[in-house]
Amino acid sequence: MNKSLEMYLKTIYVLEQDHGHAHVVDISDELGITKPSVTKAMNRLKDNGLINKETYGHINLTEKGKKISQALYYKHKMITYFLEKSLGLSHEEASINACRMEHIITEKMLEAIEEYIK
């Protein structure tokens, strides 16, 4: 899965946690991406069995989508925490960098971060 689709999944996950579901407009606002681009991405996620999209606009993760997005969200949180506590970055700066890093970090590296934090 590419970085772009991972960002969409993670955003849907956060919106679901906050509101119970997501809408195209919410995702668009959150990511600063046009609604047509979000709609196109939602179709790709739906085709891959990662989301359900209702006719009235609610978007929810499937079990498969939830599993992937939870892992991405966890990875983001761990990297953010590591950058804040170990390198002294502000939460905002750590989160921005975690967004960049979470797509390329290996499981072995994540495990090393988890061990370091303990």
Question: Can you tell me about this structure?
Answer:
The longest helix has 25 residues, at 63-87. The protein has helices spanning 3-19, 24-31, 35-47, 63-87, 91-101, 107-117; strands spanning 51-53, 59-61. Helix 2 (24-31) packs across helix 3, helix 4 packs across helix 5 (91-101) and helix 4 (63-87) packs across helix 6. It has 2 domains: 3-67, Winged helix-like DNA-binding domain superfamily/Winged helix DNA-binding domain (Arc Repressor Mutant, subunit A, Orthogonal Bundle); 70-117, Diphtheria Toxin Repressor, domain 2, CATH 1.10.60. It is built from 6 helices and 2 strands; from the N terminus they run H-H-H-E-E-H-H-H. The chain is 72% helix and 5% strand. The chain is elongated. A hairpin with a 5-residue loop joins strand 1 and strand 2 (59-61). It has 118 residues and is mostly helical. The protein starts with a helix and ends with a helix. The relative contact order is 0.13.
